[in-house]
Specification:
The structure holds two protein chains of two kinds.
Chain A: H1 6-17, H2 19-22, H3 29-41, H4 48-68, H5 73-120, H6 124-131, H7 137-151, H8 156-159, H9 161-166, H10 170-185, H11 190-242, H12 249-273
Chain B: H1 2-16, H2 18-28, H3 34-41, H4 46-60, H5 73-121, H6 126-133, H7 142-154, H8 160-164, H9 172-186, H10 189-223, H11 227-254
The chains are: A mainly alpha, B mainly alpha.
């Protein structure tokens, strides 16, 4: 089979499967800008030059490996296109990871602070007022909206509705409900409840951080395996070629090409491992 | 010929005595956990579902006649019988798969719900706490919570509503938690404090275990990606070696 024939076939399949990433790839300037805007929404501010530098780096790596494996230009070109499509996806997942991490730690430290302040002054309004300085971004807006609702005399139950809608974790709901009961009924019965919620928050942070560390470890292990596999492939190929035995060149190049494609896909999936959300959907509250 | 006659007889009997066989299957052919599975997935009429299962299988029976058109009739007959058995069993298998999924979901959602009750218990009685928890109960068992609340209003001191709550899931953790809540409701003030603390501790442990096991399972799927480079390099080496050997032998034979 003529390897040049693979290019249009590959292009068509890519267009169908990766149309979302193609629209945001470096192949289009408008798409690149759109991607950078999306990344900035996740708090990752990347310059257009840095974005293209990533592509140049990927191109150098692919061409370097392609040349080392003695691949023909058609295959190297396909691998370059694949790398171009992977970069927007990998950058987006990385930005999502950073954003989720930031939001997770911000929310948990806000909750810890809220519990600590509420233990001393069991009034929601005062506790929120004291803790708002610890927040920024979307969380600060949500807390401000909550305080503003209380300022306007909205009943306590309804004042936190928007906050719960945006942060529907069960620990958040438990804390809010306990604070409301404490404020309504008074007494010191709520203190042990607050201790329990504090323990829950600490467990939540511990478990999530440990799991995220495991995920990062897994990603690094996969990347290391990719590197080792490429090294072994290169060594074994050089060894076989040096024996001087006759080999079907097209078959060898196609095998190496498929192998490199698999490695590229594995590197992409390794990046996706860490893109899973920090706040699990299964722990989010079910609202009636 | 014998296979053809057997198949014809089988199909005629199946269609002729369709309702009688169906009645027998519904009464005696139901798997031991079929009703429980139906209860969990919310299927209210297991008998109707069983009947439909049989009807679907009977409708597919004429495919047995296909075996006569093949050379190796016995083998084809065996394959077709297996297809029919699978057609009959597929409903049960999918029911079991769904049940397993729901059970695993409830193992995670129940301790979260229990935690909400424990928070409400700080300022309320058991019955009021469960009543208040209705609005935040998982959709998976919200109807059961509503029924439980209704039962508690009628007989607040009775243990049976507690034991019956989600009992069809047959999960010992839920039964234990419900017994603890009942005990908390009935024992004296000093002892109840001790009971609540024990319950809180066990729920914390349960919640963490479920959280970790869920995440680990989700991560396990990605671990297989680590095998791709290893398999890749092995296959690459083998294929190139094979190609060299083929080229060598090919030349030898033709030369």
């Amino acid at each position: 089979m003529n390897p040049w024939l693979l290019i249009p076939i590959f292009a068509l399949i890519s267009l169908m499967i990766f149309r979302h990433w193609i629209a945001r790839s470096a192949l289009s300037l408008h798409g690149s800008r759109q991607l950078l805007r999306e990344l900035s929404l996740y708090g990752t501010h990347l310059k257009l030059s840095a974005f293209y530098l990533w592509h140049v780096g990927a191109l150098i790596a692919v061409i370097g490996f392609g040349t080392m494996f003695d691949l023909r230009a058609a295959y190297i070109l396909i691998l370059c296109i694949a790398a171009f499509l992977q970069i927007p996806a990998a950058l987006t997942w990385h930005a999502m990871y950073r954003d989720e991490e930031y939001r997770f730690f911000q929310l948990t430290s806000f909750l810890q602070q809220l519990v600590a302040v509420f233990k001393i002054h069991p009034k929601i309004y005062q506790a929120l007022g004291e803790c708002i300085n610890q927040t920024d971004g979307a969380l600060a807006e949500d807390v401000e909206a909550w305080i503003s609702n209380l300022d306007h005399g909205t009943p306590a139950q309804q004042s936190c509705e928007d906050f719960l809608q945006n942060h529907p974790h069960f620990i958040v709901a438990n804390l809010i409900r306990l604070m409301m009961f404490a404020e309504e009924y008074g007494g010191d019965k709520h203190v042990e409840g607050l201790e329990m919620i504090q323990d829950d928050i600490e467990d939540w942070i511990d478990d999530t951080v440990t799991l995220k560390q495991n995920q990062r470890g897994l990603r690094n292990r996969i990347l290391m395996l990719c590197g080792m596999a490429m090294l072994i492939a290169m060594m074994s190929q050089n060894m076989l070629l040096k024996t001087g035995l006759a080999i079907d060149e097209l078959f060898r190049e196609t095998s190496v090409f498929i192998f490199l494609m698999a490695i590229q896909l594995t590197i992409l999936m390794a990046q996706k491992v860490i893109a899973s959300p920090w706040i699990s959907d299964e722990e989010k509250l079910w609202r009636s | 010929m014998a296979i053809l006659i057997c198949n014809l007889l089988l199909i005629l009997i199946s269609f002729g005595y369709r309702s009688k066989i169906k009645g027998w299957i519904v009464t005696h052919g139901m798997e031991s956990d079929y009703r429980t599975c139906c209860r969990i997935v919310g299927e209210t009429q297991p008998e109707y579902r069983m009947a439909k299962r049989w009807d679907r299988t009977v409708k597919s029976m004429p495919i047995l006649m296909l075996s006569v058109f093949f050379k190796n009739q016995l083998l084809i007959q065996l394959i077709l019988v297996c297809i029919l058995i699978y057609r009959y069993e597929s409903d049960y298998l999918s029911l079991r798969a769904k049940t397993r999924r729901l059970k695993s979901q409830i193992r995670y959602q129940f301790p979260i719900y229990l935690r909400q009750i424990q928070v409400l218990l700080q300022n309320n009685t058991v019955v009021t706490s469960i009543d208040l928890s209705q609005h935040y109960a998982p959709s998976l068992f919200r109807a059961e919570v509503a029924y439980f609340v209704e039962q508690l209003r009628q007989r607040p001191q009775d243990i049976n509503p507690y034991l019956d709550f989600l009992s069809f899931y047959q999960l010992p953790e839920i039964a234990r938690a419900m017994k603890l809540i009942y005990r908390y409701n009935t024992v004296g003030q000093a002892d109840s404090y001790h009971q609540l603390n024990r319950m809180i501790q066990s729920t914390s442990k349960w919640l963490r275990e479920e959280r970790i096991s869920r995440k680990t399972n989700a991560q396990a799927a990605y671990q297989w990606w680590g095998m791709v480079p290893l398999f890749g390099v092995t296959l690459l080496f083998l294929s190139v070696m094979m190609n060299i050997l083929m080229t060598m032998f090919g030349k030898g034979v033709s030369g």
